[in-house]
Amino acid sequence: MRLKTFALSALFSLVVIPSFGQDLLANQAPVDRKMKAVDTLMLQQLIQNEVWESSPAADLYDNWENGESVYVPTALPDTFKVDLRGYHMPTTHTQVTSNFGARWGRQHKGLDIKVYIGDPIYAAFDGKVRVVRNEPRGYGKYIVIRHTNGLETTYGHLSKQLVREGQDVRAGETIGLGGNTGRSTGSHLHFETRLCGVALNPALMFDFKNQDVVGDFWTFRRSTYNRESSQATRLRGTGGVYRGGDGLYADAKALAKSGSSKASRQQVRNHKIKRGETLSSIAKKHGTTVDALCQLNRIKRNVKLKPGRVLRY
Questions:
Q1: Partners of 272 in the β-ladder
Q2: Could you report the per-residue pLDDT of 117-153, keeping only the tens digit for each?
Q3: Which residues have C-beta within 8 Å of that of residue 162, sequence separation ≥ 6?
Q4: Closest by Cα among 272, 108, 91 to 188
Q5: Cα separation of 168 and 147, whole Å?
Q6: What are phi and psi of 36, to 5 degrees?
Q7: Kind and range of the H or E element at 106?
Q8: d(CA 64, CA 72)
Q9: Residues 238/96, Cβ–Cβ less than 8 Å
Q10: How far is CA 10 from CA 14, 18, 30, 184, in A?
């Protein structure tokens, strides 16, 4: 009888143990999947942070201001090469209804594109959403995205915003829906391109009629901007009509708020930091002061300088 009981117990153990092990594995599987998902998200975030740290935008902008303003004023370089590769047109519509420049006694800081309420609006380049706001007497419901190529784009008069501030977006991702909110006389997309807070004519880079950009790269040159903007309006604006008054310096008051109105009016140059350099050595090299460097770049005297980053002087 004892032998029979022992045999039955042994048999039961052989059956139960594997079953118990299978239950443990089954319970562990969802945990493993969750941990893998967490690891993947952390890796993606690390990669994204690295992309931002090494992007042209990191060298252009001193800070990040969620929801504060359409523009973040900073020193505008004399020249800057914008990478237009990997773009996506913000809308599939092709009709430009209003040019960049002087309009009704004021500066129109972007292009108006005919869209209908509910039409999808797309991010023009990879980037991070900086502003999601509603301005009833102006842009209406609008979105501002800072892109890794150094530009910031604004999408105004939306009926709905589909992203949040601080969200990473990819070129071509739907960020909102076309609308007629704010100061608007009909459904359309108000589209702006800004560099260091200064509004630039989107027609210099975007060809809505042909749903394309002007090339792989476009270079901003302060000295020739107005002439090039005028030509872009004739080529890619509303039937070639140019109204003048591009307003490159229309945001001078905003630039003055960057902390040094004098520096904003003067010619600002860039210095790429080399290993071993200090604020003192850089200031001496360019005939300026450490305090001036700190004020212009919005940094403290004890800041740790990273080789490869750019300082303005």
A1: 310
A2: 999 999 999 999 999 999 998 999 999 999 999 999 9
A3: 174, 175, 176, 177
A4: 91
A5: 10
A6: -65, -40
A7: strand 106-108
A8: 8
A9: yes
A10: 6, 13, 32, 82
